[in-house]
Write a structure and sequence with these properties.
The structure holds 2 protein chains of 2 kinds. By secondary structure, chain A is mainly α. Chain A is built from 9 helices and no strands. The radius of gyration of chain A is 20 Å and the shape is elongated. By secondary structure, chain B is α/β, with parallel strands linked by helices. Chain B folds into 2 domains: 11-80 and 167-262, P-loop containing nucleotide triphosphate hydrolases (Rossmann fold); 94-164, no CATH class. In chain B, 35% of the residues lie in helices and 24% in strands. Chain B has a 6-stranded mixed beta sheet, with helices on both faces. In chain B, strands 2-1-4-5 form a 4-stranded antiparallel beta sheet, with helices on one face. Chain B is globular. The chains are: A mainly alpha, B alpha/beta. At the A-B interface, helix 6 and helix 7 of A face helix 2, strand 6, helix 4 and helix 6 of B.
């Protein structure tokens, strides 16, 4: 039986697992955005924090994903359910691109523009919301895009701890030495990743074209 | 809005023995004493790194002196709320520093907007300013990237004047323009200044520009004030650094005082 026949015959299960996959990616990305973007902004305001925060996010990124699931297992409440565990791990992984891009996006705003705003009496808050964030937006969206694409891939591993998602088929296929079954998980996952990449890439480009810095 | 800034007598700006260093570095400004009269155009002249721009930023508290004090309208900058101080001082910089994501109208309306002017008054003021700086009204909805360098700089000037501040700081505003556009804007600046009588502090490294625009020229060298003289006295000064600067520029056109011949 080939991949597409399998998907056709088990479409409700494939759909369920795809939605589960999307749920994990969606919630974790949302949480990461809610934490990562404010953190990224914060470290542009408190330069003493930039290295520790970026360093920590970097270290989290280097922990192998299976190991991270393992480390989080003893955490109370979180460790009690596999989906919570998976969402937390995915959130942690998504933090780095979000913090880094928010930080780099704000730092990358033309300093003459920021200085002009400050010199004309804009408050720090006005500068942030009217100048720095709008001008950094496309870079921040690029961070969301990277984080989302990484998450879609990583979420397949969540099946290893029983959190479900498209990884189910991949692990099942591995256990049964059935490449077709692996593809049943891998193809929709790849399609999701591509879809996220293309749609967020489009958004990024659209926002970017609005804010091109004037040429000399 | 800036009642504190609009009293009509006394000095507009005064530097009292001001020194400034950035972090633990060398002094960028040392022992600066300088007075700016109301309604004069004081040009800060000097080569790159001489401390002109830093001097300007000390006035609107973008930098704070390491020692000494700067008085704006008789009050030390350290006692001003920096936000209020800056909103009463127009600021025009090289390449205009316009917000690329704002239209011309929103750029010009920046200070009125953060000062919460009613929107019809802002709209009217923008129209007034566009006319004042010689820009067509239909440019209001354009973005800075759709303008020429000269037009952007005009928008920069209009933005600096938007809330009618008594003091205007200009940091090499015409530095990035081609010579013809620059000459055009310099002429218009003179005409504008004749009408508006703002207190202007104007930074440039261009001696010709200084002589043309300044009612007084303050030459700076390595963070120190060398001389502050009206243009006609400046060209005849026997001060060696002034002479060196004059020599570097060769023959010069007529200066402020016999305006109109330039």
């Amino acid at each position: 039986m080939n991949v597409f026949q399998f998907i056709a015959q088990n479409h409700s299960e494939v759909l369920d697992l795809t939605l589960e996959h999307l749920w994990m990616v969606g919630i974790s990305t949302l949480l990461a955005v809610m934490v990562g973007i404010p953190l990224g902004i914060l470290i542009t305001r408190w330069p003493a924090l930039d290295k520790p925060v970026l360093g920590t996010a970097n270290i989290i990124q280097t922990v192998p994903s299976l190991a991270l699931f393992g480390f989080l297992l003893p955490v109370p409440w979180i460790g009690a359910r596999a989906d919570r565990l998976a969402i937390l791990a995915l959130t942690l992984y998504a933090l780095l691109p979000l913090i880094r891009n928010t930080y780099a996006g704000i730092k990358g705003v033309d300093s003459a523009v920021v200085e002009a705003g400050r010199g004309m009496g804009m408050t720090d808050r006005q500068l942030l919301f009217q100048v720095q964030l709008p001008l950094a937006l496309s870079v921040i969206i690029a961070g969301v895009r990277v984080a989302t694409v990484i998450s879609v891939g990583l979420a397949t591993i969540a099946a290893a701890i029983g959190a479900g998602g498209l990884g189910e088929y991949i692990f099942r296929g591995l256990a049964m030495v059935n490449n077709q079954l692996i593809l049943v998980g891998a193809i929709p996952a790849a399609a999701l990743a591509l879809l996220a990449d293309v749609s967020l890439g489009w958004l990024e480009k659209r926002l970017g074209s609005r804010v091109i810095v004037p040429q000399q | 809005m800036s009642a504190d800034l609009s009293s009509k007598n006394g000095l507009a700006i005064e530097f009292r023995n001001v020194s400034y260093r950035f972090g633990a570095g060398t002094e960028l400004i040392s022992g600066l004493n300088l007075q700016v009269q109301r309604s004069e155009t004081l040009v800060l002249l000097g080569r790159s790194g001489s401390g002109k721009t830093t001097t300007l930023k000390l006035i609107n508290a973008l930098a704070s002196p390491t020692s000494g004090e700067i008085l704006v309208e008789g009050r030390p900058t350290s006692q001003w709320d920096p936000i209020r101080l800056r909103r009463g001082i127009g600021y025009v910089i090289q390449d205009a520093g316009l917000f690329p994501h704002f239209t011309v109208e929103r750029n010009i309306a920046l200070v009125p907007k953060i000062e919460n002017w009613p929107s019809d008054r802002i709209h009217q003021r923008v129209a007034e300013l566009l006319q004042l700086v010689g820009l067509d009204a239909n440019l209001a909805s354009r973005y800075p990237r759709e303008l020429s360098g000269g037009q952007r700089q005009r928008v920069g000037v209009a933005r600096g004047l938007a809330a009618d501040p008594p003091i205007l700081l200009m940091d090499e505003p015409f530095g990035a323009l081609d010579p013809i556009t620059r000459a055009e804007l310099q002429r218009e600046f003179l005409a504008l200044q004749k009408r508006l009588e703002k207190t202007v502090v104007f930074v440039t490294h261009d001696l010709r520009e200084a002589l043309l625009l300044g009612t007084r020229i303050a030459l700076m060298e390595a963070g120190k004030l060398v001389a502050a003289l009206p243009p006609d006295e400046f060209v005849q000064s026997s001060e060696p650094i002034v002479k060196k600067y004059m020599d570097a520029f060769g023959t010069l056109p007529a200066c402020n005082g016999n305006r109109g011949s330039a």
